[in-house]
Each structure stands twice: as C-alpha cells, then as structure tokens.
Amino acid sequence: MIETFTGTTEGPDAAALRERARLCFDLDVDICIVGAGLAGLTVALEASRMGASVAVLEGRHVGWNASGHQLGTVMPGFGLPIGELIERIGFEDTKELWDLSKEGAAYVRANAMEEHIPGIALSEGALEVSNVDVGDQLISRLQMLSEDFETEVEGWQIDRVRSELRTDRYFHGVYYPKAFQIDGRKYVHGLAAMARRAGARIFEDTPVVSIDPSGIRKRIVTPSARLRASHIVLAGNVHLGAPLRRLSETLLPVWRYAGVTAPLGERLAEIVAFRGSVSDTDGIDHFRIVDGDRLMWASPETTWAARPQRFAGAIASRIRTIFPKLGRVEISDTFGGAIGQTVHGMPQIGQLRKGLWVASGFGRQGLNTSAMAGQLVARSILWGDERWRLFSPFELVWAGGATGRVAGYVVGLWGRGSAAAAGALARHRERARIQERVREARLAEANRQGGTRPAVRRPPPDRPRPAVPRQSPQSQQASSYREPVPAHEEPPQAPREPAQAFAAHSYPEPPLAAAHREGEGP
Ligand SMILES: Cc1cc2nc3c(=O)[nH]c(=O)nc-3n(C[C@H](O)[C@H](O)[C@H](O)COP(=O)(O)OP(=O)(O)OC[C@H]3O[C@@H](n4cnc5c(N)ncnc54)[C@H](O)[C@@H]3O)c2cc1C
Known about the structure:
The protein is α/β, with parallel strands linked by helices. 36% of the residues lie in helices and 20% in strands.
C-alpha cells in the first residue's frame, strides 16, 4: 500500500469527531463502500437517506488522505478545461456534465451549513488568475461560461487583479462569485457525522483486502470480518490496492502539499485584499487567507510520498516569489495528500459490472466532483438514474504504473517550467510595452516643444504588417475587458497544461477499459 503522510497535528475537535470502530463481526448490507473520503462518504449519506443499509469500510480513518487535507475551495467544473471537454465529447454532453458539476457544488453548499457542520466557515468567491497576458482568450471563455454554461462569472482586468493581489505575476482574472470555500477538514468529518445520523455505519481501521464481485450477493473480506452486499462502491482513490489492483493502476498518484503561515498581521491585507480562493490557470498555486491574517497555500507536487514538513521551505519561497513585498514568511503548519490523476483528466464514475461501482480519480478538484459522483452513484443504485453513463467516454486507461509516475513527474516539472517561462515572457513583454510608451511620450513631448510633427510608427521590417481585426458585436461588447496591446505585438502563447500533456501519452489499454465500456466484469 502506498504510504501517505498527513504531517499535521489534528486539533482536539477532529479527535473528538472521530469515533473509531473497527469491524470485527460479519455483516450483511445493501451497499458496502470502500473508503471514507469525500466520495465514499457522499455515497453513504445519500444512499442512507434513500433508505438503504450502508457500511463504509475505511482502512485508516475518516478523511485520512486528501479529503481531510485540502483547501476547501468549491468551484463548478472539472480538472479538465472546458474547451478540451467540448473537443472530446461535444457541446451538448459537456453542458450536461457541467450542470452535474454545478449540482455537486450546490450539494456541498447545502451540507456546509452551520446547523449541519458547526464551524464550517463558508465564505464566498473564487478567483482564477492567469500567469500570462491572455485577455483575448479569457473573453471567449467568459462568454462561453456565462452564455452557454449559465455560470456566473466576471472578467477582471489586470488593474483590478493587481489591486486585489499586489504582484506583477498575475494578469487577467475570472471571478466566480458563486464559488465558495469551507473548512475542508471539518467538512469531511461533518459528512461522516451526517451519514451516521442518516443510518450509515462507518468502520475505521478496517482495510478491505479482497472482494468477490461475482453473483448477486457480493463478498468483501477484511482482516477480521466478512461482508455480503448487493452493491460494492470502490471509493478508495489511489490507495485501493489489493481489492482491484488493475483499477488502482488507472490512477497516477500525485502528492500535493500545502502549508499555513504564522499570523502575518496587517501587512497581509495590504498585499492580498481578496478574501476568497485564488488559483492560477496553470494549476500551480492555490491559496487563500485563513484566520484573518494567515495564508494557506498549496503548490509543490511529487509522484512519490514524502513528509509535508519537507516542503515548508519550498512553500515559503513560492509565497515570496509571488508576493515579494510580504517579506519573509514562516510556515507554521504543513499537510498534504495523494490525489488520483486519470490519464484523460476526468473522474472515474460508473458501474464496472453489475453491482460493482467506482467513484474515484477526482484530481485537484474533488469537492464538487466527488459530491456529484456520490449523488449519481447512490441514485443509480437505488433509483435507476443512468446519468453516470455520461462519463463512459472517459475509459479506465492504464496510468503507466511506476513508469507512469516517473513520466508524470517529468511532465509535471516540464509543465511548471514552461508555465514559469511563459509567465516570465509575459512580464518581460509588459515591461517592454511600458518602456515603449514612456519613450513615445518623451518623443511626443520633444516634438511638441520643437514644433515638429510626430513620426509615424511603422512595424519593424522583420514583422508582417498586422491585419486589422474585424470586431464582432460580441467582442465589441467584451472589449472593455481587453488590455491595450501595441499593434505589432503578438499575444504570448499559453503553455500546454500538464494534464493535457500527460493525456497526450498513449498507454496500452488494459482489458478493464473494455470492460468499463461494455459494463462487463474485469
Ligand atoms: C493539498 C490539497 C489541496 C486540495 N484542495 C482542494 C480544493 O480546495 N478543492 C477541491 O475541490 N479539491 C481539492 N483537493 C482535491 C481533493 O482533496 C480530492 O480530489 C478528494 O479529497 C478525493 O477524495 P476521494 O474520496 O476520492 O479520495 P481519498 O480522500 O483518498 O479517500 C479515499 C479513502 O479510501 C481509503 N481506502 C483506500 N483503499 C482502501 C481499502 N482497500 N480498504 C479500506 N479503505 C481504503 C483511504 O484510506 C482513504 O481514506 C486538494 C487535494 C490536496 C492534496
């Protein structure tokens, strides 16, 4: 089994919330769920509310892995960019998936109320910032999100972004006023408490060592008990291991680490005025303010398990790179967990064979997507809802085993490196534009004083003369969002995203992929 180090001390409330019970007697239930992370617990809560008898078997404890060590940002959508989704499955199916992802976020919001989960600390708004100057691309994205996908978004110009976040690293932004953040750790324990109240039984320190999914009543074996169930839901993410190793191998485990600074006092508000979550479009940094004057920041990633404490220095220096005016920051807490990355970037949701279900591979965006998956799977089992089939185009593709991890690491490094290079280029161009404007202003002033006519600027001879773009009514409408770019400059190229680059690898397809397609057994 892959080792995960959470590397953080749990508060007394977390310990009190945990009511550890190991399964040491045989049991018969309607639904047996493997894994008490966000996905498994959502299935448990929903299925119990619908009247099924449910047992959750967790090898460690509730929220042991990523689910108990995340930043709590709840956004619509998936890890895979919307444009790539449309390319892959077409507009109509993308729209349905997008609506499901919004339902997932709404589900989290409905649960994350103070009366259900005390201290959940819900706050509104999330901002996605660009590391490069891609205003034009953002305009079409904004139009698509708001008009075609009915998602409330605002485009922020560079000035607005930089008045909220005092750094020259970020350019334009997309603000999601309906996105929100919660205390992620409280949420997973609150979900477990709600599932228990609805009648689910959660057994911790109870690893599932094997399953036999044949027959109507399926068999599940743990070190000290045997269960029988009509349905098994595999929600073990990258740690599933022995019960269905071939399924585990369709996920690339990526360990993501985060830290929380010591209180930073008033200097933080001067530099980071924005109070919601911030993430960059390259998926490198993700942060928000917690406890009034501390920064919670996720960034480093590895494809092997390491102690999060090791990354305290890297997180501090990353904060300094983005916000140099903050000065030195001390990291007082670190944590991390393994996320399951699929080759295509979309989660694994569906029925592998009759009565055997999977809900895994939620990547970096697991809060809304695992909520969506939990609802879909429970409704499919109990009400015959077939919408999980929308995920059928995203097959179970082998993630490359150990070789895949090395490849994933290299691709991740390359993605970060190329994002950094693109960011540096964008900042260089921005500085050059400013210098050019200053030079032109000086020249105009000199001409005015000398009574001469200003020189006509021509594009340099090595560049083709740019065509004058014809503006559509829509682009005119959005043009207030556009930054002025000198006519002879090309917009910088956006780097390829790591997920996209990873998906470009073709791995041999195991028999499981075919099974998933046809709904047959592995
Ligand atoms: C640092 C960090 C920050 C993040 N921030 C965000 C964020 O702000 N917003 C967001 O949407 N997402 C975020 N994520 C991603 C999100 O946390 C994950 O996508 C999500 O938690 C995955 O949930 P899960 O239930 O699939 O998996 P897990 O949390 O891994 O849960 C699976 C559980 O199954 C158990 N298990 C596995 N195998 C067995 C077995 N054989 N028997 C018994 N039990 C088993 C494991 O012990 C584990 O507890 C973040 C992740 C990290 C690491």
